[in-house]
Amino acid sequence: MKKIAVLCKDGFEEIEALTPVDVLRRANVHVDLVGMDDLKVTSSHQITIQMDCVFNDQIKEYDGIVIPGGLPGATNLRDDARVIEIVQQFNREHKLIAAICAGPIVLAKAGILKDKICTCSPGFETQLTGANYQEAIVQKDDHIITGKGPAAALEFGYTILESLGYDSSYLRQGMQYEYLMNVEAHKE
């Protein structure tokens, strides 16, 4: 079974962290919320969330990591040397790395976005030096997935799931995502 870690520090965006967890757990993927410093982490909207575990050396056993946005959560992750080190290691090992909203600034600091197609929340693209920034909801370039922001969280989660080799179509239907997309496409 694949194992994914969602890294969280104070100031993370709840939707961007919890939606991928929800999608992955519905597909029976093992996913842990990982507090970088504590088992309780407070989001950017002052909601305290209980993590599954605290960051330790076992992070190396995971198949992928997810970096949510939110401020100051993304900058807190970017400024944590342990996060940069694990992102670089996962990149060397060609493991899944996913970041959404402001989260790609962590990947940029780790130096893994050079010539990679990516997206992020408006305004953060200036910090993605060397990246091939694209206006898109979600972008996938090899083992790196990036998402635009909170509204992209479901598509981001489905893309992570598909990158792990799972079919997301049953979840897209069951969660009424396809219905939502069809309604939106037919609005006048």
- Annotation field: number of helices: 7
- According to DSSP, the number of beta strands is 11
Largest sheet: 7 strands, mixed
Q: Which parts are unreliable, with pLDDT below 50 for 5 consecutive residues or more? A: none
Structural category: alpha/beta
Overall morphology: globular
Strand order of the largest sheet: 5-2-1-6-7-11-10
Task: List the topology elements.
Layout: E1 3-8, H1 14-26, E2 30-35, E3 40-42, E4 48-50, E5 53-54, E6 64-67, H2 73-78, H3 81-92, E7 96-100, H4 104-109, E8 117-118, E9 132-133, E10 138-141, E11 144-147, H5 153-163, H6 169-174, H7 177-185
Parallel strand pairs: 1-2, 1-6, 2-5, 6-7, 7-11, 8-9
Antiparallel strand pairs: 3-4, 10-11
Helix pairs in contact: 1-5
